[in-house]
Amino acid sequence: MLRTSEFDYDLVVIGSGPGGQRAAIQAAKLEKRVALIEKKAVVGGACINTGTIPSKTLREAVLHLSGYREKGFYGSSYSVKQHITMQDLLFRTTHVIKHEQDISRHQLQRNGVDMLLGTASFIGPNTIRVLSVDGHGHQDLCAEKIIVAVGTTATRGDNIDFDGTEIFTSDEILSLDHLPKTMAIVGAGVIGTEYTTIFSTLGVRVTLIDKRPILLDFVDDEIADSLAYHMRENRVTLRLGEDVSGIEKFEDEHGRRVKIHLASGKQVIAEKLLYSIGRTGNTAKLEL
What is the signed CA dihedral for 31, 108, 45, 57, rounded to 10 degrees? Predict the structure, then answer.
């Protein structure tokens, strides 16, 4: 591919998650002029900042501090730390996230990728406008090729008051200031099931709600049944085959709580609600 002076870059990548980062680096290694646009102040996308890396690090922190792997040897009451707090969990999680951010940023810089902070939109077939974070300025870039790698965001139900404290998605999980005594999780997919096992291991009484009759219907029945057995053994309440008809926040003598109304007429009350029914793809703004 020949370089032409009409383009500022051979390639512009929108989004600094795993897909965008690797596309930008691979093009740079082929001696292309590359720019990467990210609307957030940190690189890495959902994978590093709110998704895979945080959840897996949180899981490992819980397994270590709770002594889960050693209970078979030392007894069911064994734990590395007696009273585990969110601060204990975040200490390790924040460190790992920061480390992964630094690695991603260094790899981009080392390969000569120009990093631009702002929100990208198309204003022509080969022209991207980058709006500054404060909204008071923009920069236009021309590129021969453009890759849109903007990833996904957590699905948010209509008419649900997501406040990031009582009702939240997996993207806000690290903003919890304390471990609740009770938690309801709507959605028994991979993310919902993972956080169910994480919080129940910490002693949180978790109620997992899903409209499907079985857990993780894409795995073998024996695995799903075994998982359900161990979750119940860990005092998880499974409400499978149940549709959620309404969610409301209220306050009583026990403090602020959430009430989940089920289509069957049942009600689930918990201190916190994690809404986890999947993720939806982001879309790049198109203005042609």
Answer: 130
